[in-house]
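Raw record, unedited: NAD dependent epimerase/dehydratase family protein
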Amino acid sequence: MKKTLLSFGHGYSARALAARLVPQGWTIFGTTRNEAKFDALAGEGITPVLWPDGDLSTAFETASHLLISAGPDVDGDPVLNRFRDQIAEMAPRLDWAGYLSTTGVYGDHQGGWVDEATPLTPSTRRGQMRVDAEADWRSLPGLPLHIFRLAGIYGPGRGPFEKVRQGTARRIVKPGQVFSRIHVEDIAQVLEASIDRPNPGAVYNLCDNDPAPPQDVIGHAAELLGLPLPPEVDFEAAEMSPMARSFYAESKRVSNERIKDELGVKLIYSDYRSGLAALLGAGG
């Protein structure tokens, strides 16, 4: 049977998954807000559809799989707000549905460990919107939903090297602060593994094996480039956007044992050192 993926918010992570599925003969419909991206998406084997007013009738009729990468806003989940009835109608005949959430739903644990059973206690408005969106998607009867809580994403075009090269990088230091992160290729392989081994209702944390202070990652990037370490700046004195500062409101180490145990995933990049080395080797 022909496999067809309807991908809402077909961005960075979804495109990495599509690069694995298209060579296997999948049909993929991907929504984008920017018509200027149509040619690039078509070149990747995607059928682009303009959001929110493009024609998705064929996608709704033929999709066997559903991926939601679009994030919620103050009005709730934009996909459900517009297409709840159509998705509810197609839900019982889908083989798999995936929702890309965030580890921000766990809130601040002062550097302690969290796993998928940890209560959801977000400390930011963005985190709470994700909790609400997860619940909204779960409320659809018959939807074979899988939730993927992503740590900080990096990969081609999203590494620290350019700022280090330009001399604009800083090592912002907040005592006790640690973040988990995940290479986009590992996101793609986890999603593919889940599609191959569906378990509706499952929740998975997507992160590597090495939660680390952000200043260590910047420092290692400089070392790989053979450049001086960027200056250390105390968090309280650092000039940062409200968005950037909000990320430092939470410190936790995220467990990834479930993707290994249930999906048999072996990470391509088990820590930021291997991930950054690969990025630099590929032209970073």
